[in-house]
Structure prediction request, 517 residues.
Amino acid sequence: MASDLTPKVELRGVRKRFGSKVVLDGLDLTLGRGESLVVIGGSGTGKSVMIKCVLGILKPDAGQIFVDGTEVTRLRGGAREAVLRKFGMLFQGAALFDSLPVWENVAFGLIQGHGVPRRKAKDIAVEKLGKVGLGPEVAMLSPAELSGGMQKRVGLARAIAANPEIIFFDEPTTGLDPIMADVINDLIVATVKDVGATALSITHDMVSSRKISDRIAMLYQGKIIWQGPTSEIDNSGNAYVDQFIHGRAEGPIKMEVRR
Amino acid sequence: MNVFAAIGRVVLNFFSQTGRLTVFTADAVSGVVRPPVYWNLIVQQMIRIGFFSLPVVGLTAFFTGGVLALQIYNGASRYGAETFVPVVVLVGITRELGPVIAGLMVAGRVAAAIAAEIGTMRVTEQIDALTTLSTNPIKYLVVPRIVAAVISMPILVAIADSIGVFGGYVASTEALGFNGAIYLNNTVNGVTYDDVSSGLIKAAVFGFIIALMGCYNGFHSKGGAQGVGSATTNAVVSASILILAANYILTSVIFSHG
Prediction:
């Protein structure tokens, strides 16, 4: 039984490489119970790889991953599915199933993963759609009929449908206009609070990071190079963090640009 | 030095692909006997794979049967053996052309569609989403398609056999002056259990190959639209080649006693 002090998710020395490219290089990260952590970092720094390793979509080459104090690094089959029932995930492109109507997308995890009857799952789906500001008329539409912002909201409704203990947000505001991005940020804050979940978000949107996080960590070259409370991000004393949060081309982080 | 490196890469790639396909096939086959079984998806896929392939397979079988009758008549008439046309058409269609033509047509239609659908799901992270929703993508996406194809193909080929023989009948009676009743009589008297059953066994194997290649290539597609395009092409090409290779092996095995 995990105590209140046991981290909800913990990564210890996680390594992952693709061919000769090292993406995660001994990554250590702890996600406390009930906190909202945002991991920032440039494109291609391994943020998505990190959460895919936690979810078991990718297998780390080395290191350990714990959920509620139990090691889950090499879990497969039914044991992995049992751990995944604790998670909800909002994908960058929403990743809605185009062959299913909106309500069935939202209810998918309830029906397939939790064995909830379809009729009851549909009622829950409509209720969750309401929580993200979408009316019941949207439930019967196909995902292809929705705008990008609406798809993100449906993805959010799907992520919270089964009242998960942990929710991952992968670039939740990427590709949205600033107003819709702020709407999604507000929804993330409200729904995480409502469900009482622990949240891990990855993004390079600093406005979003400041709004949705209690704590921020920065990933660079496969390692966490700085972490601290959101209120301290402007006084981190770390040149890499300063360059990133102010979006400067000049600084210790060199982008590979061919002229 | 570079030549050796290139050869090494090709060899390594071959073994890694073979290993990946073997693991994928084992996962898919073991998924058939492990719950949950998605019956509604199996029925849905049987309609897509079997029912919607009927027009194209039926038309192909009809014309193939007709052409077969014309060509066999052309050869047989040189030896005064025209009366063998009905039975040779029957044997040609049921043992070889029915299953092979249907297999190749369904490979073009269905393997491509499966690879494109699953490939798009892969590149848009829908397969990852299935995993996060505690659903095994192999059981949910691959197993129903394989089971549906293995059941649908023999049914499709049985219908194709009938239409192909009918095509031979139409060509023989309309273009070659055969008596319809005698043609049918010779066909019915000439049919054996082995002729039909061997074709249906082949059809089930071809169905497995088609669905497996479509799913495998879609599942391992990379990148965006180009990756899905490559997966679709690879699915059709690999399914077609494997169907022809499997046909040779099955023919050798099934008819080795005779």
